[in-house]
TrEMBL record:
InterPro entries from the UniProt entry: SAM-dependent_MTases_sf (IPR029063), Trm8_euk (IPR025763), tRNA_(Gua-N-7)_MeTrfase_Trmb (IPR003358)
Family listed: Belongs to the class I-like SAM-binding methyltransferase superfamily. TrmB family.
Basic and acidic residues: bias regions: 9-26
Name listed for the protein in its UniProt record: tRNA (guanine-N(7)-)-methyltransferase
Gene name of this polypeptide: TRM8
Lineage: Eukaryota, Fungi, Dikarya, Ascomycota, Pezizomycotina
Annotated source species: Letharia columbiana
UniProt GO MF annotations: tRNA (guanine(46)-N7)-methyltransferase activity; tRNA binding
Length: 313
């Protein structure tokens, strides 16, 4: 079969699967797309001018507020939800983490953000199929997860208000090995500022990679952010005299395979351990690393409280 024929076959499958509301899980081979996308390109994305103008009703229909009469006039057409989105999986890939998080965080609305068109479509169809398969259950599972095509390096604050998120996941991001490509990494001094903005004090950023150098890169950027004595350039910087603490603190984590001991303790410590175990075991890339006998480098960063203004000290 020619390349054009294969492409047409994939398009026909995706169209049929969506039109028929198929409860069968979609097949990845019909949604294949190159692994990397240029975050600086114009991807013809749609995004709200502000978080208040984002209509989440089609993403979380089970959580649409019953009374929509109180919507402000300048927010016409926006149907409010009974609760806000509080968890973001940035670069969610084929949605393995989203599906795993749904029963672990049943009281949270979880959003996957993915820049690749066909991969986003796969996750949307996957969630739709899971919801259809479980339509007769009560409460209905997988209603608290959704996926959105977006470029978070450009538009994250357009979707989330200040302090809205409790958890951000950055799982196996593109390492961009070449030095001239480092500016395209999902963690940088500039992006740390945006993560700090949308994350509530006490909220956490979870990172995992199988590239040790990238793991160290992400750790150093989060630890340095907000510390005026550390160089802010993404090529690195030397420590100096400045704030003793940045905006993020690194959290101690359980050894791999021993997360259950921490989970049994409960509380915030148990929650972090449960989510760390999830990103190690449930992501597609995490499973691939396990099959290949590779290493995973995990870090979790908790956002500190905002520093006091000078006249408040």
């Amino acid at each position: 079969m020619t390349a054009a024929g294969k492409r047409q076959k994939r398009e026909d499958y995706r169209k049929t699967h969506k039109e028929e509301g198929n409860a069968e899980l979609p097949k990845k081979k019909f949604y294949r797309q190159r692994a990397h996308a240029n975050p600086f390109s114009d991807h013809r994305l749609t995004y709200p001018a502000s978080p208040a103008l984002m209509d989440w009703s089609s993403h979380y229909p089970a959580f649409v507020a019953p009374d929509t009469q109180s919507v402000a006039k300048d927010h016409a057409g926006v149907k409010p939800l009974t609760k806000p989105v509080t968890v973001a999986d940035i670069g969610c890939g084929f949605g393995g983490l989203l599906v795993a998080l749904s029963p672990l965080l049943p009281d949270e609305l979880i959003l996957g953000l993915e820049i690749r068109t066909q991969v986003t479509e796969y996750v949307e169809d996957r969630i739709s199929a899971l919801r259809s398969q479980c339509a007769d259950r009560s409460p209905r599972p997988y209603q608290n997860i959704s996926c959105l095509r977006a470029n978070t390096m450009k538009f994250l604050p357009n979707f989330f208000a200040r302090g809205q998120l409790s958890h951000i996941f950055l799982c196996f991001p593109d390492p961009h090995f070449k030095a001239r490509k480092h500016k395209a990494r999902i963690v940088s001094s500039t992006l740390c500022a945006e993560y700090a903005y949308v994350l509530r004090p006490g909220g956490c950023v979870y990172t995992i990679t199988d590239v040790e150098e990238l793991g160290e890169w992400m750790r150093s950027r989060f630890e340095a952010f907000g510390n005026s004595g550390v160089g802010g350039e993404d090529e690195g910087g030397e420590s100096g005299e400045g704030r003793a603490e940045g905006m993020f603190e690194t959290i101690e984590l359980p050894e791999e395979g021993k997360e259950g001991e921490w989970v049994d303790e409960g509380g915030q410590k148990g929650l972090v351990a449960m989510l760390v175990r999830c990103i190690r075991e449930e992501t597609e890339e995490g499973k691939k690393v396990t099959r290949n006998g590779g290493k995973r480098f995990v870090s979790v960063f908790r956002r500190r409280e905002d520093p006091a203004w000078p006249d408040e000290i």
